[in-house]
Amino acid sequence: MSSPVTTAPEAAAGLATEPTTSTEPTTSTEPTTSDTNQHYDLPPEVFGLFLDPLRKYSSGLYRTEHDTLEQAQIAKLHFVADRLGLRRGGRVLDIGCGWGSLTLFMAVEYEAEVVGVSPAGRQHAYIAQRAAELGVSDRVTTIQGHFETVELPSGSFDAVTMLGSIVHMPDLDVVFRRARALLRRDGRLYVSESCFRNAATRAAFDHREGTEFVRASIFGWGDMRPLSDLVAGAEDAGFSLASLDDLTDDYRRTIDDWLVNVDAAAERIDAIRPGTAATLRRYLEVANAGWGYTTKHYALVCRKAR
């Protein structure tokens, strides 16, 4: 029997039937909730005005030149499930679950039992409402808190996902070790993240004006790393690398579509929170300016081989 939608802060509510908990380290220098929530705790209506209907706030996957944003985001969610080798009824941990696009999609389309983790309180209420509307409340649990410190049963998930969330986690060693401990044998971890092209580019651009604007005005604390740091963290934790995909062009096109939507809905966005449309536009323009030059976007899949 799967768990109901829950919003228990810093605790794995609904999972008490599992007998063990992870023994991996659970402490790190974590960002404050206010740092990471300053953007995600905007009113949900703001995101509904420029994202796709699922409110997926990460790269889509465009199969043809004619694909819409909605088609690209649905294709991306199927892509994630395929890379994970997800079977119907599997158990998925969605770290940084956002507005529940992946959490709800996997529960509906793959009949998966999904646990979503996010520090942003508004997102949990939204996911609970949508899960009830979709009839999957019995398959969806959400936990409000930081992944580094929430208590979760070890060896209890078939798949773990981090779509655009590892950038907000300071200690890669803790994150990858915890993810591996929570997976069953042969389970998979999917990480998609924007990365500096290499260490030299990071050193040159990490404190430039555009980067600091995104930190100060959008996401608060964040540490964008080169891909090599993510690979090293995964390998040091004991993962085997299963696949790597370059999704940079897809993210550029995703942001182009978001920009069109922001411009079309600017008055309505600003009616909810004055000045938000201009801030969103600048953030999205900064992100798109770097693709292929200073930044890339990758999807990394790791397997717990033993």
Automatic annotation (TrEMBL):
One Pfam family this sequence matches: CMAS
Keywords: Lipid metabolism, Methyltransferase, S-adenosyl-L-methionine, Transferase
Residue ranges, annotated region (Disordered): 1-41
SUPFAM superfamilies xrefs: S-adenosyl-L-methionine-dependent methyltransferases
Top-level taxon of the source organism: Bacteria
Biased composition (Low complexity): 17-34
InterPro entries attached to this UniProt entry: CFA/CMAS, SAM-dependent_MTases_sf
A biological-process GO annotation: methylation
Gene Ontology terms for molecular function: methyltransferase activity
Family per record: Belongs to the CFA/CMAS family.
Full protein name: Cyclopropane-fatty-acyl-phospholipid synthase
Species name: Frankia casuarinae (strain DSM 45818 / CECT 9043 / HFP020203 / CcI3)
